[in-house]
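pinging the channel bc i need a second pair of eyes. not urgent but kinda urgent?? the chain im working w is below, pasted from the shared doc
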Amino acid sequence: MGLLIDGVWHEDWYDTEKSGGRFERFESTFRNWITVDGGPGPTGRGGFKAEAGRYHLYVADSCPWAHRTLIYRKLKGLEETISISVADAVKHPQGWHFREGDGLIVDYVNGASNMHEIYTKAEPEYSGRVTVPALWDRESETIVNNESAEIIRMFNAAFDQAGAGGPDLYPAELRTEIDALNERIYHTVNNGVYRAGFASSQAAYDDAVYPLFETLDWLEARLGAKRYLLGDRLTEADWRLFPTLLRFDLAYYGNFKCNLKRIQDYPNLWGYTRELYQMPGIAETIDLMRMKAGYYTIAAVNQTQIVPAGPIIDFNEPHGRG
């Protein structure tokens, strides 16, 4: 969990002393967009046209932010259009690390052993956290974007004339509602589990954990009246929430002290999580053991780095949602 400073790797944890023990996430720095014609997107510069075989996605399937992009790559049928490298989930002194192994895919595009090498190839004097996902452009040899929320929107729409298929997960008529849901869920749930898990003071932990469960209670009630977050249609909001719910009982409940309730204690959320897990192709994006190892090998929150044997969770149990 280190960072680059002027292009040099440092194995440093997050500094929470300046923030009263509060975890503060770094802003993503590469913010260009792939578009149908290569014109500029909402941020960044132009020149990134949607083309099959041009882009390469760096991920670690243990990471929920990267998992979003793997789900979209599957749902939009982009496996042949966008290639991937999968970093090891187990934490390494050099950060996200590529090696041979079951389910892992080395960096066969740039030949890097560590993800930070990709960042310095794109920007030799880069300073900041080295994160996944990151979307690489073979043509201009740079990182296009390393913000998962933007990458999934590119996957949703930009490649429709370059091999993509599948549903529109950000339909125009639902965008205002999707954005509002995303805003609350990101701050209190997606990032809320990290704010609780990485807190280094009681006050910071309390400020994170209670809003987290208030939102989970709210989502439980919402899913008691709706099949999905916006009704009968799956949208971006569902697929942004799902990776956090999937990891909750496996890792956040224990290792991140998010232990007021399990997702299994919420009947609607638990059925909803299983339903999304069981949708065609989704389980192929998931390795539960690697996922768990990715969290329990964070030395700052689990000094021994022992990965527990349990819990045993059956995501294939019938979800009972029709």
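so Strands lie at 3-5, 8-10, 55-59, 83-86, 128-129, 134-137, 142-145. and The two ends are 42 Å apart (CA to CA). — does that match what u expected or am i reading it wrong
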